[in-house]
Amino acid sequence: MIINKLINRIKRQKIYKKKIRIMKQNAPDCYFADISSFDPLSEYEGGNKISSGVVFDGRLGYGSYIGQNSTLPKTCIGRFCSLSQNIQLVAGRHPSSKFVSTHPAFFSTLQQSGFSYVNDQKFEEYKYVDDEKKYLLKIGNDVWIGANVLLLEGITIGDGAIVGAGSVVTKDVSPYSIVAGSPARVIRYRFTEEEIAFLIEYQWWNKDKEWIKTHADSFQDISSFIKAEG
Ligand SMILES: CC(C)(COP(=O)(O)OP(=O)(O)OC[C@H]1O[C@@H](n2cnc3c(N)ncnc32)[C@H](O)[C@@H]1OP(=O)(O)O)[C@@H](O)C(=O)NCCC(=O)NCCS
Most CB contacts within 10 A, which of 82, 153, 200, 223? Predict the structure, then answer.
């Protein structure tokens, strides 16, 4: 019993050390508060910060950060995103019509309760955003998500969008919209239609780091930004 515990502890330490080694290679200029809960083989583009209690795997674009206790499995996140604390991706579906029961024993081979009545999958349990079934959620670039937000799987949050605190997002969010509430609805757009069209076309987040740094002062006003860059 004691020997088994000791062996398990040594195994865990080995895995932990391996994770640190991989993370240092993959993400040299990133900060990870707690490396135990997320996947070291995920892609971190750089300048990323992941706070404590975060569960994450997928792709994190340059400059994006994730606040405390957020859970974002299989998520693709663009550049310069600000993700607050306690953002939860809600993954997993049960049938809500036609099927007599919602219990997975009648549609899933995964044996959630320890048994199943079916030999093959009868219902798609996860909704992916891509055909390769790699990501459950896609967050664009320059997206700000407030605290305590629930995001349902299979949705895309467009570039420049804002999600208000405490929202439950059930559908795609269009670029540069501000959505809030449960279910989240558009409360307004950040800019005019023309300004939004310009930003979507311009994609400043894809400029090189040096360009962004030297132009940072012009980010304080959308009209003068478009005048200067348009
Ligand atoms: C959405 C948000 C960005 C405000 O956007 P805004 O365009 O300035 O919105 P306003 O404050 O003018 O509010 C517009 C309407 O939306 C409502 N609203 C604003 N935020 C809301 C929210 N989170 N949930 C529900 N409704 C909200 C307001 O009550 C107001 O309603 P009314 O028109 O009936 O009076 C802000 O309220 C928010 O949620 N910020 C996130 C803060 C946060 O989580 N910070 C943590 C770390 S950064």
Answer: 153
